[in-house]
Amino acid sequence: MPEMRFHVRWPDGRREACYSPSLVVKEFFAPGESYPLDDFVEKTRTALTIASDRVREKYGFSCSAALDQLARIEAAAERQAPGGHVTVEAFEP
Predict the structure, then answer these.
(1) Coil, helix or strand at residue 87
(2) 46 partner at 20 to 30 Å CA-CA among 5, 13, 37, 66?
(3) Is residue 22 within a helix (H) or strand (E), and if so which, with residue range?
(4) Domain spans of the chain?
(5) Phi and psi at residue 28, in whole multiples of 5°?
C-alpha cells in the first residue's frame, strides 16, 4: 500500500510532516491551499479513517499509525487560536 507524508503549516506558523498509509489524502487537499482549521481537522479525520480502513481491508487490522497521526493533528488543532487556517504545503511520496 503506498504511504505518503503531507506537510502542513499550522496557524501559529509551526510546520509538521504528517503520515498517511494511503494516498487518499490527495483527494481531500491540494498543495499550496489553506483550509479553515475546523475544516482541515474534519477532512483529515475522514481521510485518515479511510486510509486506516484500507489497511484493515488489505491486512485485517487498522493502521495504528494513521490513528496516532489523527490524534496528534486533533491535539495540535486544540492549541491553535480560533479562526486560523492550515496550509498544506506539499505532498511527499
Answers:
(1) strand
(2) 13
(3) none
(4) 35-80
(5) -110, -25
